[in-house]
Input
Amino acid sequence: MLRAGSAKNRGAPAGPKVPSERPGQPGGRRDTNRKERIKALSDAALALFLLRGIEAVTIEDITTKAGVAKGSFYRYFDDKTALVESLFAPVSDAVREAFDHSSARLREARGRDEAFSSYEQIGEGLGRLILHHADVVLLYLQECRAPAEGARAPARRLADLVAEKAVEHTKLARAHGLLRDFPAEVSTMAVIGAVERILFSILSGEFKGEPLEVPGQLITLILDGLRAPDQQRPAG
Amino acid sequence: MLRAGSAKNRGAPAGPKVPSERPGQPGGRRDTNRKERIKALSDAALALFLLRGIEAVTIEDITTKAGVAKGSFYRYFDDKTALVESLFAPVSDAVREAFDHSSARLREARGRDEAFSSYEQIGEGLGRLILHHADVVLLYLQECRAPAEGARAPARRLADLVAEKAVEHTKLARAHGLLRDFPAEVSTMAVIGAVERILFSILSGEFKGEPLEVPGQLITLILDGLRAPDQQRPAG
Amino acid sequence: MLRAGSAKNRGAPAGPKVPSERPGQPGGRRDTNRKERIKALSDAALALFLLRGIEAVTIEDITTKAGVAKGSFYRYFDDKTALVESLFAPVSDAVREAFDHSSARLREARGRDEAFSSYEQIGEGLGRLILHHADVVLLYLQECRAPAEGARAPARRLADLVAEKAVEHTKLARAHGLLRDFPAEVSTMAVIGAVERILFSILSGEFKGEPLEVPGQLITLILDGLRAPDQQRPAG
Amino acid sequence: MLRAGSAKNRGAPAGPKVPSERPGQPGGRRDTNRKERIKALSDAALALFLLRGIEAVTIEDITTKAGVAKGSFYRYFDDKTALVESLFAPVSDAVREAFDHSSARLREARGRDEAFSSYEQIGEGLGRLILHHADVVLLYLQECRAPAEGARAPARRLADLVAEKAVEHTKLARAHGLLRDFPAEVSTMAVIGAVERILFSILSGEFKGEPLEVPGQLITLILDGLRAPDQQRPAG
DNA sequence: TATGAATGAGACTTCATTCAT
DNA sequence: AATGAATGAAGTCTCATTCAT
Output
């Protein structure tokens, strides 16, 4: 059976196609070639997507840059949508995992400090993600508001996943008294928006300065707001 | 008189093409027809762009929906990019104006309260914008991270304009002691990101609840942060 | 009745259309305007045809250059073919006349000298033509080998007319013993080819030198050949 | 190996596009198919060009007649201009070669007879050309006076090449005392014009009679002129 | 398997012609 | 009469996808 990762095949998990009868041992020569091809195509596609946008890149652009024949593309991916889906798959997994782990820890937390520490789970997971898949994350940021149609749909679906998981987590956090009493959707979206916009600036090279200090600044900003300290309303 | 604007004519302000001399009175039948056509094409295009993304919409889609002949499109716009440009033109103008007015008021402000009130200028300007051009704003939010290539380029250029104006304004505000001592780029982008993400949720119908309360919540959030009040660090 | 000079209307003589009921006196204000328009369109068309070839020039190119509205073109000409036909009409007439006059004189000639002088008729007629309609002649030379289809057909028809008239004239001249005993078609085409190629060089600016001496050189060439005199075969 | 040639690639010699590396052996099935396609397209195009003129023939006309898909055209040629260029390429080469060889022989000639014989080189070369590429030559004759723009440009460029080479050769011949003392441009153009016009008559079927005798008649005509022998001016 | 040739639908754009103003 | 807006057929070229080699 084909494990097709395409729009036409939503049920199946995203990922490269596998021919029905795969010759050679897993890990053998053919399997290695196969992986190299997939990597070459994915890398080429990613670079081009960032440069010109997903929609504007043709299959031939990708295969040419990857150094393979046009027809070979279809041995590894059903179509451009499937390739995009496979690019985002590890990110989707990481997002799901990070939030789920954090939520689990939050649920088991005793006391505020322990609860707060659940956020570290998210930070760690997503931090690792950003470090290891910077380009995919940038592509996500670039295309994530697209209508859920065509080849950009996977980006949008990932955005919806992030929103859903984050809202869920926020509700849990507020149930533990960690947050102000706001509608979870509003505060969550604000945070997502702030974080993503900053991330976009960093990854796209818009920020020239030292990006290492940004996360800390961002956390302060989110937790304590923008208002200048001497104008701070009295706590409580 | 209408301004001429075309992709080949970047110097001129964006807008529909107009022959230098035309028959018929301004305000006459032809002039009316002309405006109707431009509106029909722009409206049709906007609706389709929101539904399927700018890149995926063809000229024929637009003309069919607008109820005009395919060739007529080119009497009014050089190409899809020019149409997009003309959609964003009033928004660009409004953004520029709102920030410039606010900056001017901020520069002349005496005291913090007066300075803070300069933000009202922005809020008012952009609020009006959002009310009157909701769909264009939504389109902007949807496409604003696109690479500055092809038909989506005007969206990206507008995003760059917003960022530039906002950072400039933030620096001015900090010079007046209104804000915490953060790098202006970081805090500005965070605010832009938060606001835009929320706006996207509202305009795209993601938020089900009462959107009228959102702006106030958002302002509190931005100024005072997310942290629950009883955990607030001591002021100063 | 319309006197349309168009491909669809081969029976009628070539020339500008005339509205069925023409207002105003011939020679009056309207008639003058009419002639001016026709001249403007014809001149503009001719210039463009020379620059880019008949086929490549659009109706709009012509009207724009002539400074009239596109729709006005169709008041004066049925289509581009009709305009081309009307450009060539005076040349066709002059060609017909020059050859017919010369043939008539030749038929009445007594003696060789008188017969030879009939050629002056042609030379004079065509010389005047070339002087007064240089651009049309150049256009003819440029397009005269086109298949007799589409807008270039009138050029080809003129070429066929020239060939027909010239062959007829040559046969007559040989009957008077003026020429060598060659198949009339061969010698006539050779002369036409030589004359037209030279004319093309002159009119298109290919020849830099003094064009006034060319006709004499050409006549010597045609009558006495290229061979260097000291290699001349014995006469007879 | 086939030479790559495209409109965008003017530096390279004209010819069908070829990817740098292709699968299949030279001479294998793919290579054969390739050549068949190019021939089918070229033949179809040539026939249509002769029938309707280069400008009036569309890519679809060509592919339909050749029995291939529209898109396939662009695998072999960049556009119509490139196809025309490739049609004329062998003719250009032959012209260049014939004149260059003849000029070389002329330069080395001792005595008039030997010098005169250099013309045989041209006659032979161009004769072979006409026999083997009659249709291309006819197309050349049909389109060679076109402005050097668009798809007909290659025809005009070939005409310019012929004129240049021929004038150069004539100057050489006169330096050897073979020809009358005329400006080389005038006599050369006259001869080119005569020859080409006759050739056009023959190849286009205008001449009904025996074409085999025409070349001899033409040579006599060119060398010794049209004047009836008993009117010949005294030699010398 | 890999290749790239072939296909034809479809996108963009132009333009001759008609027609309301 | 003059204008130029409207129309839609037609042309150019691209590209996803299939398939012979």
In short: The CA atoms of residues 220 and 226 of chain A lie 9 Å apart.
